[in-house]
C-alpha cells in the first residue's frame, strides 16, 4: 500500500516547519469543535502558508497573515450565505443529493469545513461528520457548479492532484511537468517571496 504522505513529501521536499506549533492546532481545533486530519496538519506545518504549483493555497493556524482559522471562518460565512434552498439545482449540482447529506451546512458538527482553496475558485471541504483520523475521511471539492467526493486521505488527494489527476472535478487537472513549484505566501505588505522547486520527480 502506498504511503501517500511520504509520496507527497518526496515531491515537495524537506519539511520546513517554519511555524509549526502544536498549541496553535489545539486552540484552533478546540475553537472549531472538530479534529482536522493528522496528515493535513503535518503538511500544513511542513510548508504553510504556501502556494503549491501556482494554484493551491494552504494557510497555517499560527500565523497572522494567511491564518487558517480566519480563512476557515471567512469561508464558512461566505458559503453559509448562499441560499441553497432557493437555487434551482440539478441533481448533479446539489451536494445533498450527490452525497446523501440530510442538510447542507457549513461550520457545524455534521457540516462542511473549507480547509484549502485554489486561485481557480476551487474549495476543498472536510466533511466533519466523518472521523478525521479514520483511514478514509470524506472530502468534498467544489469547482464552479461541480461537486466531487473523495474518500481518501488529504495526503493522497494532494499527491493525486500534483500528478495531474482530476481531483476537483471532470477535466480539472492542473498538471505541470517537472518539479513541483512552491512559493511562500507574503507575511507582510512589503514581502515578495520567490518561488523554488521540489526534487526532480521524473515527470
UniProtKB/TrEMBL annotation:
<dbReference type="InterPro" id="IPR037883">
    <property type="entry name" value="Knr4/Smi1-like_sf"/>
</dbReference>
<protein>
    <submittedName>
        <fullName>SMI1/KNR4 family protein</fullName>
    </submittedName>
</protein>
